[in-house]
């Protein structure tokens, strides 16, 4: 009941801030799930892919990449399919492919910073409204109701400020954490891609190559990045 009373005393702006907190919570949960599972860099998986590439078994490496929807696996698959290209061409293609991966890693994270700022501003707006009500009551209300209206105005001012900060602070904290996590994953992606390119460019096996790699499954993202 204390929480309900706290919200009701803050007025309409409290509900706006609560709505912002729900949106922020959904984004945080979504990004945590994506970065912890969908986009997590699995060392064991990519070591297996690199092992096949070192052996020159590109068909097996592609088979592993096509079994997952991990964006890095799709980047590696594109490089492996064009393993005979010069290193400069592979480097250019990798840069383009990784640029397409970056928006997936950083999707919706920027909204947390915006929601934190908006929550603070809405709290400030509620504070201004509460102060307006308080000062207006001093000049227009009779002495009997003046104290009550003044108290309500102050409650609106303080409660909206408090709730706005309660929502904004976690938004900023999680925004910073998720951004750092995204940069960390992107760094690991780049290291793996550079290792793939190095193997393809300098450690190509002299033994006969296996059959030509299979085409990507229907629906996989692709494009001619090696023109």
How many discrete structural domains?
A: 1
Low-confidence stretches: none
What is the overall pLDDT average?
Answer: 85
Number of strands: 0
Give the fraction of residues assigned to helices. Answer: over 70%
- Characterize the biggest β-sheet: none
- The H-and-E topology, N to C, reads as HHHHHHHH
- Radius of gyration over C-alpha positions, nearest whole angstrom: 28 Å
Shape: rod-shaped
Q: CA-to-CA gap between the ends? A: 66 Å
Number of helices: 8
Structural class: mainly alpha
Percentage beta strand: under 5%
Overall description:
The protein has helices at 2-10, 12-38, 43-55, 58-66, 71-81, 87-105, 110-140, 143-202. It is mainly α and 227 residues long. It has one domain. α3 (43-55) runs parallel beside α8. The chain is rod-shaped and about 95 Å long.
Summarize the structure.
The chain is mainly alpha-helical and 227 residues long. It has one domain (11-202).
Name a few traits of the molecule.
single chain
SSE layout:
Layout: H1 2-10, H2 12-38, H3 43-55, H4 58-66, H5 71-81, H6 87-105, H7 110-140, H8 143-202
Helix pairs in contact: 1-8, 2-7, 2-8, 3-4, 3-8, 4-5, 5-6, 5-8, 6-8, 7-8
């Amino acid at each position: 009941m204390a929480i309900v009373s706290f919200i009701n005393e803050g007025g309409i702006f409290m509900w706006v801030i609560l709505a912002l907190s729900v949106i922020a919570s959904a984004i945080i949960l979504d990004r945590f799930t994506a970065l912890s599972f969908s986009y997590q860099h699995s060392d064991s998986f990519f070591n297996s892919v690199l092992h096949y590439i070192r052996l020159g078994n590109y068909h097996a490496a592609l088979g592993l990449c096509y079994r997952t929807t991990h964006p890095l696996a799709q980047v590696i698959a594109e490089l492996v399919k064009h393993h005979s290209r010069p290193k400069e061409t592979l480097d250019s293609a990798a840069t383009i492919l990784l640029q397409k991966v970056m928006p997936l890693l950083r999707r919706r994270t920027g909204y947390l910073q915006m929601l934190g700022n908006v929550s603070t501003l809405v709290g400030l707006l509620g504070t201004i409204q509460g102060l307006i009500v308080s000062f207006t009551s001093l000049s227009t209300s009779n002495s009997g109701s003046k104290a009550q209206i003044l108290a309500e105005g102050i409650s609106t001012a303080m409660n909206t400020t408090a709730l706005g900060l309660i929502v904004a602070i976690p938004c900023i904290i999680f925004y910073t954490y998720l951004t750092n996590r995204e940069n960390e994953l992107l760094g690991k992606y780049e290291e793996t891609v550079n290792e793939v390119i190095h193997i393809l460019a300098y450690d190509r096996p002299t033994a006969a190559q296996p059959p030509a790699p299979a085409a990507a499954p229907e629906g996989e993202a692709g494009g001619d990045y090696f023109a």
